Amino acid sequence: MSRPQIVSAGEGRAAPEKDVESGNSSRDRILAAAAWLFAERGLAAVGLRAITAEAGVNLAAVNYHFGSKEGLLEALFERQAKPIAEARLRLLGECREEPGRPPLLEQLLEAFLLPAFTLGVEPALGGAAFVRLRARLAAETEEMARRILVRAFDDSSLRFLDAMAEVLPELPRAEVEWRFHFLLGTMVYTMANNGRIQALTKGSCDPGDLEQALRKLIPFLAAGFRSAPAPDA
Amino acid sequence: MSRPQIVSAGEGRAAPEKDVESGNSSRDRILAAAAWLFAERGLAAVGLRAITAEAGVNLAAVNYHFGSKEGLLEALFERQAKPIAEARLRLLGECREEPGRPPLLEQLLEAFLLPAFTLGVEPALGGAAFVRLRARLAAETEEMARRILVRAFDDSSLRFLDAMAEVLPELPRAEVEWRFHFLLGTMVYTMANNGRIQALTKGSCDPGDLEQALRKLIPFLAAGFRSAPAPDA
DNA sequence: GTCTATACAGTGATAGAC
DNA sequence: GTCTATCACTGTATAGAC
What we know:
The first copy, chain A, is mainly alpha-helical. In chain A, 65% of the residues lie in helices and 0% in strands. The first copy, chain A, has helices at 26-41, 48-55, 60-66, 69-94, 104-118, 128-138, 143-167, 173-192, 196-201, 210-226.
């Protein structure tokens, strides 16, 4: 694996300072170093000292800019989650009933899942580690993790929830919500790729192959969403 | 549960009386204290010093008996997972096609999910914290977590995988495996109860209500399992 | 405002005496 | 087997330099 270029050398741009995207302020260098190291070595195995050394800044810079290690994590996550949420909404806007295209429900499922599966593994955004980071946060009960996920994804998720309720008018809203919850479960668990199913099936089923996972997941979920509502109580 | 009555005669020590279930050896006291504290305060917030103080043993005792904090976690998890795996297999043995009972697939799903949802929250086994611990381990990519889960659940899971393949003979084995993977995702994510869906739906959908979750989950999964297989490539 | 050097209280782990 | 003392290391906080 090649190291990401942290400092972008002078390209033609005439505004060298404060490039928001890939700036070389110490704040941005910390973010880049953290993304790189988390991707390379995992999450818990990377301490603040490793990050600050990689970024070429002082240890205290992390606390100055982000308040805490958790704050750094939050900033990093938010930055990486943004393109996913945006892509989701863009794809949602392109969903329409049309001959030759899959049913609307399948379109919605793909629009929701595809950005998470593809953008999630882009090296520029921290690579596969980010996907696992998401999965880990999803398993967290603490307030911080919840807040991070909510801020990053709730508005786009809510839009999808509404769209799905619209596509399934015969289903009570609460039922759609439960099923959306189950959808999140399959997505997050697949992204976590904890190796359980590989061990169980001796490798014949590999959730690390996200393209195939998507192809298997969408029909499975679509059938679940379309099933008759469960008795309520 | 009865333990063997055989006591070696003429031993120097008088009646060692190691009760395996709720013994007061230092090893068992550590396990009990850890289960209690993890349930009470969460996982990361509890240090070895708190555990050893609660158990009334020395700090080094943990490393002596379990090798490391991870080793303690593993022992604890294994002890708590065992009744779940056993209950699953027992319920699996009671599944049969019979008039007046749900279809076999639904029976299998319930036999698999019910022990995880009910035994998982029993206070005697560490309470709700154990459920979250499971969810957290499932999101872990590290070798240790994988090994723990495999040792605890793989044999019973494999039996269910086989049973489901048998109930769905028209489905390729790989397809059943993928769907079993999705089943695990919905289960773990529901058990994690990270608060996401509550926030999204303003509380109208609460996965903390595991009984209702089960009633919503089984039809959803059954429909997914029964859907036509996806194209393979 | 930004950044640095340094100190601090906490962790899990371990060697060796008893 | 058990305990004391200590180790290396963590995230955090602060005082002060530019």
